From TrEMBL:
Enzyme Commission number(s) of this protein: 6.1.1.21
Name by which UniProt lists this protein: Histidine--tRNA ligase
Record-annotated Aminoacyl-transfer RNA synthetases class-II family profile domain positions: 29-312
InterPro entries linked to this entry: aa-tRNA-synth_II, aa-tRNA-synth_II/BPL/LPL, Anticodon-bd, Anticodon-bd_dom_sf, His-tRNA-ligase, HisRS-like_core, HisRS/HisZ
HAMAP family referenced in this protein's UniProt entry, alphabetically: His_tRNA_synth
Species whose genome carries this gene: Sulfurimonas hongkongensis
Length: 403
């Protein structure tokens, strides 16, 4: 038997209901915030992710589904959504046009990670990207959007917040951090020594418990921010507080993608095991320029849909539409004809086989239909249809012409 690849799942049945409920909820909230849908290709040039997510990131250095296509192009399945949206933004010359552009998207992402609970090789994200707003109010606004989405789905969370500074305050901080790590280099892991060469800030994200203890004493970027970054971070915290969004400051939150500056955040859940990040994002004011566009401030987030599925509270099951069935063979054609006409305006579940009433009622209940409608030879002779309202538990016989 051919099975799906490791870390790649089918989304079916109850999960699918939760999945679509999530997409519908998140979509309507993103629209309320003024975002427009964008769909970008699953396959992009590998160079796009190398330049944006960063050569030294785990995503690019270890986890890409990368191959040479039949035209000798170096391509890969997208590991995340931001780079493709920025590419589209620059390609459509929206950077040159100026103004504010806000997009939302959802779809599969691919990372060749070691699969475990909550960590897949194909997973789905819902994300937004906002271009053209420098104000930190936009950062607050997208954080509040994630909060609105999670609240609407009944999902509890903790919000972790940090500032990664800008091109003025980050380089001197980086040098301080490098000096610190060099002073403790006999005690930190090999990965951290390697990170000193590639991306020193990522040492703060090291999962090795010894390193984590050592970095508690490392210099904190948050204490070295320039005035502008510090003011913005203070304003962000105030807006969140004014709007009843609780947060924790996590000075070691550096994110696994290289394009961030200033605001960085993660929403985590304490109820889903070790892969606890349910959403992440931040500001990336330099990325448009890195991808050959005109410098444009930008900020965004992505939510990992699979990690949320088991947490989503579904609304009370609402019965909807019709179930149609025949009690006798000779009624089947009429049942099909009535189904076709009802389907122009309603959801209809149809059974092609003649069955007794009890079986039809059971099937209608399973299909969550509001009405169970059946026709047998009696009804055929009288031009009627038997209808039971499964919600109100009432039944009636209706003339076909009035159905
Ligand atoms: P990210 O933190 O890499 O950010 O991913 C966002 C979310 O996707 C994570 O919080 C997690 O819920 C989910 N996720 C990531 N990897 C996996 C996996 N292997 N299996 C299941 N779920 C996973 C980004 O991707 C950025 N593009 C977010 C962003 C948008 N920043 C600015 N704009």
């Amino acid at each position: 038997m051919i099975k799906s690849l490791r870390g790649m799942n089918d989304i079916m049945s109850e999960d699918y209901q939760r999945f679509t409920h999530f997409i519908e909820t998140a979509t309507s909230i993103a629209k309320r915030y003024g975002y427009h849908f964008i769909e970008t290709p699953l396959l992009e040039e590998t160079a796009l992710f190398k330049r944006s997510v960063g050569d030294s990131s785990d995503i690019v250095s270890k986890e890409m589904y990368q191959f040479i296509d039949k035209g000798d192009n170096d391509v890969c399945l997208r590991p995340e959504g931001t780079a493709g949206v920025v590419r589209a933004f620059v390609q459509k010359k929206l950077d040159k046009a100026g103004g504010i552009h806000r997009f939302f998207y959802h779809g599969p992402m691919f990372r060749y990670e070691r699969p475990q609970k909550g960590r897949l090789r194909e997973f789905h994200q819902f994300g937004v990207e906002s271009f053209g707003v420098e104000s930190v109010y936009e950062d607050a606004s997208i954080i509040m959007m994630v909060s609105d989405i999670l609240n609407a789905l009944g999902i509890g969370y903790r919000l972790q917040l940090n500032s990664l500074g800008c091109s003025e305050c980050m380089p001197p901080y980086r040098q301080n951090l490098v000096n610190f790590v060099k002073s403790v280099k006999d005690r930190v892991c090999e990965d951290c020594i390697r990170r000193l060469e590639t991306n020193p800030i990522r040492v703060l994200d090291c999962k090795n418990p010894t390193c984590q203890t050592i970095y508690r004493d490392a210099p904190k970027l948050i204490s070295s921010l320039c005035k502008n970054c510090d003011d913005d971070f203070t304003t962000l915290k105030k807006i969140l507080k004014d709007n009843d969004i609780n947060y924790e400051i996590d000075t070691n939150l550096v994110r696994g993608l290289d394009y961030y500056s200033k605001t960085a955040f993660e929403f985590v859940s304490d109820n889903i095991g070790s892969q606890s990040a349910i959403a992440g994002g931040g500001r990336y004011d330099r990325l448009v320029e890195f991808l050959d566009g005109k410098a444009t401030p930008a900020v965004g987030f992505a939510i990992g849909i699979e990690r949320l599925l088991e947490l989503i509270e579904m609304p009370q099951n609402q019965r909807e539409g019709y179930y149609m069935g025949a009690l006798d063979e000779e009624a089947i054609d009429l049942v099909v004809k009535l189904t076709q006409s009802k389907r122009k305006t309603h959801k209809v579940t149809l059974d092609y086989k003649a069955k007794n009433l009890q079986k039809h009622l059971k099937a209608a209940d399973k299909a969550d239909a509001k009405f169970c409608c059946v026709i047998g030879s009696n009804e055929l002779n009288n031009d009627t249809i038997w209808v039971k309202n499964l919600q109100e538990k009432t039944e009636e016989i209706i003339k076909i012409e009035d159905f």
